[in-house]
Amino acid sequence: MSQTNLTALIEWSKSNGCKISELIEFQFSANGISAFLKNLNVPSEPSVFLPTSMIISPRIAYSELNLNETASPVTALKLLLCQWKANPESQFGPYVTCLPSLRNIGSPLTFSPEELILLSGTNMYHGVILKRKQLIAEYRKALSYLGVKNSTDYEEYDQGEIFNSLMEEISSECRYPPSFAWFLWAHLIVTSRGFPYKLIDPNTSDDAVMLLPIIDLFNHKPRSKVTWIPSFEGFELKLQGGAEKNGELFNNYGPKGNEELLMGYGFALVDNENEQLQLTIDVNDICTKFLQIWQVPLPQLKEYTCSVCADESSTSSQSSSTIVVFLSNKNRVLPEGLLELFASRRANIDDTQKTLKALLNGLSDLRSALESKFRKKLDKFQSFPLTLKGTGYFNSEEMMKSLQTNYENACIYRQSQLDLWLSLKQKLKSLEKELLKQHRPRVITIKDIMTKELFMQDVAIQLRLPLAINILSSSDIEILIRIWVLRVTEGAQSHFNTAWVKREFASVSPGVGSEVAEVCDMYEYLKASSQCLKLNSWSLKDLMKADLVIERNSYAKGSKRETVLICPTNL
């Protein structure tokens, strides 16, 4: 956009009834176009009023395009933008002329494969691929409304071919019906500049969107104090929070994380107070009984999002009634119900209440799941792709500038996701420490067993195992804990209250499972030491029962997955 185009847009809007406070001026800035306060020393409450005749709504789209109202209102608006782009002489020509180009919007949906790598290991990487597929499907449906087809097999393209196709199609003037690249352009205009149409028409569908020329020139800043005033006469934006030190005035799009901002708006915020880390989980395999015991909420993404376009805040690769979404944010690092969900997965089959064993196992499993999903992924920052300079479509100053912007936004997004993950890790670590301290009398570690049970020291000596806990192997620990269970069920004098061990041992019945082979191997090992351990009275069934007692009453602690016994404890 040029200064001439911007001036023409302002003059056109005023001539059509738009009222802009005299204290407001629009200038080019590092963020494209920004609104500024002319005089910082004058107390004011600047505003912009847009008459109804200037509001670009789905109604206009249905009317001008002769579309049946079974067509999605959002899709209709995208088609309308494409028609206006193909016809600069339209009523809203000055507005459409000033809209940013596809690459200048900055959404990852326009990224090259090399730019997509900047997002590898994040939720957004797969989200971009998924969203492109969804948009291609929407594009096909949009063309069906117009009774036309496009023979290009976008569905068969890889990410490199999609990018090349976008660049080739967008380099040509927009025609109507549009190519996929121009439909994507219209999609991003709607996501980055749209306002909920329900503000004007409460009877419209939830996903309906409107465009507000001039008002959409204001950039976003969280906590900016603004008021939106919809009415039959039009729409007014009042800016009540004053200007920044440099004089810039901001709108407030609502509490949006960087994932939603980058995908739909083309930018990310450093230290975004509304940043969130999306965790998507399938609960299909969890017993409803345990979900109820643990009072687990099952939130869907729509319960969180403030996006004006459906699904724009989601980068989940799945959509199902059994898929739930938890959002970690700065105000609540550990989302409500997330730990309880993992705890419900580790309940014993006969549990009727919440238990300490299930909670600690859920915590351990959650930590492991997060490590598997994010470790050595989120913290892998890519270097700037200098090799792209001067190659292919990156042979112009404008493309290199967009590459630099995309790189910076990708780094901001990745860092914000990494910060939340590290905060969540620390929260879980602290919570585990707190639980173990609070319930210390109900917890028995291998250190407790080997330092407080004299008969177990004899066992270690007879097995030629080290008495130093820190050099015991994980298999040594597993053997020693099982021997301890067997010995106390025989009546060995113990430092601990072992009545629960005896009750559990008497009640369990070994079945058939994947662990049986491991128990058999352990039994063969112990048989080799039967003479010194006096194991003649211990059968394979006894060892399997001891194994079940431990499985039902223990959890794997820390990265070493050390087995820790937990006395049955209801919470």
UniProtKB/TrEMBL annotation:
InterPro entries: SET_dom_sf, SETD3_SETD6_MTase
GO molecular function, one term: protein-lysine N-methyltransferase activity
One cellular component term from this protein's GO annotations in UniProt: nucleus
Domain of life, source organism: Eukaryota
Residues in coiled coil: none
PANTHER family xrefs: PROTEIN-LYSINE N-METHYLTRANSFERASE EFM1-RELATED, UNCHARACTERIZED PUTATIVE METHYLTRANSFERASE
Protein name: SET domain-containing protein
